[in-house]
Amino acid sequence: MRLKCFVLLLFFLVLLLCTKFDGCEARNQRHRKSKLSPSAMARKKGRHTSVGSSKGDRDDHGDGRDNQLNPPPSSQPPYPGTEHQVPNPAAMFSVLDYGANGDGVADDTKAFEAAWAAACKVEGSVLIVPAEFEFLVGPISFSGPSCGPNIVFQLDGTILAPADSRSWGSGLLWWIEFTKLQGITIRGSGVIEGRGSIWWTSTESNVHPSDDELSLKLVEIKPTALRFYGSYNVTITGITIQNSPQCHLKFDNCEAVQVFNMTINSPGTSLNTDGIHLQNSRDVMIHHTNMSCGDDCVSIQTGCTNINIHSVDCGPGHGISIGGLGRDNMKACVSNITVRDINVHNTTNGVRIKTWQGGSGSVQSVTFSNIRVSEVQTPIVIDQFYCDRSSCKNQTSAVALSGIAYENIRGTYTVKPVHFACSDASPCSDISITGIELQPLQEQYHMYEPFCWKAFGELYPPTVPPIVCLQSGKPASNRILSDHGMC
Question: According to its UniProt record, which protein family does this protein belong to (predicted)?
Fold first, then answer.
């Protein structure tokens, strides 16, 4: 009897030990399963990952994120309702998987078109242009509106513009275009290389012998490198755009735009190479961006409102400009512009408003604040007689300027500290000047005193130099806008 009890007890002990062992094994199996390698995870889920993209595709966690591709958080929150959704990690489309060579010689335009066609169908997809490759891409349009929202264009490689006239036909206004999209992000550490030097030369004889591949005569219409049209919730961050034939980055008819932590780079001698050009766009924020070019670092044109530019380095170039507005007797409307905490150096202008004679409409509620200038020809400019031709017809009507504030603008100039040339028929009103301290570099240039014509407002001294030419108060007979001239 005792022996039977002992055997029975031993049986229960063995059974209990086996149960615990199985449980441990099961946990170990689950633990080992959770440590599948990133490549195995990708194969298991069938992701469209980049072939040969050594960086920029995913981090050590294997979850499709790369901390290096996400710049530091914006110093200001995005506009309400513009937060991007997290991209779909199961929908990544590399241009290499669609036939791109990436050698900088073969034409990869069709591969980019095919990759976009696939990514366009999926909400939150990521189109990957991998690092360490150069892609020769002709004029291309990444178009909606049938595309899914919140697409990410992950640019870590280099995109090269064609260098011969055959790719441009009779002339195009843009090279790379994104149109009619809802939630589009261009991000990464890559480069858009416009190869614009041949476009900047005035005659074919200026082409260097080493540029034989560029020797074909290009069309007269110079394309913008990167253009966005009719899009909402646009983000550009991390990338570099350089050597554009004309404007580097343009937004037309766009809303809720963020540009930050990027670089625009062309020589100061490159003709008409604006950094960022805004037109008919609203709710735009540009910050923590470095720009050097041959024209305006930022150009704000008609139809723009709620534009906020801060923490930008500009130079060489023509400074930050509103206009030219009112060309060919057109109506122009610009309002609610803030430019602050800007460093401007080695430029022709600092902050400028320029309008053509004969225009109509208005510019109002503009603030230029905390601007640091260094070796700038004329730091503060209003020019209502702007003309980029040999001569322009004198006309009476003009775009009306009011509510323009200049605060804490300091540094050095090389020609003239302030130039206010306002319209006779529509004088500038409500100009406010506070905390101006501009010193000349007399050893280099002939200096001029501050100039004012038909400029009215309030001066809050002291200012260096004294800007005594600004007339106090309001003009005696300010023009009343007609229905045609009202915004």
Answer: Belongs to the glycosyl hydrolase 28 family.
Q: What is the mean pLDDT of residues 305-329?
A: 97
Strands, DSSP E only, in 84-223?
92-94, 103-107, 126-129, 134-136, 140-143, 151-155, 158-160, 174-179, 182-187, 191-193
| 295 is a catalytic site residue | yes
pLDDT digits (tens, 9 = 90+) for 45-87: 333 333 333 333 333 333 333 333 333 444 444 554 445 455 5
Strand (E) or helix (H) holding 29:
helix 2-33
231: tokens are 């899009």
Active-site residue 318, yes or no? yes
Catalytic residue among 295, 296, 310, 345: 295
User: Residue 423's pLDDT is what?
Assistant: 95
CA distances to 120, 122, 171, 254 from 184, rounded to whole Å, are 11, 13, 27, 11
**Residue 183's closest CA among 146, 232, 144?**
232
Give domain 297-487's CATH number out of 1.20.1740.10, 2.160.20.10, 3.40.50.2000, 3.40.50.720: 2.160.20.10
**Which one from 248, 310, 318, 345 is the annotated catalytic residue?**
318
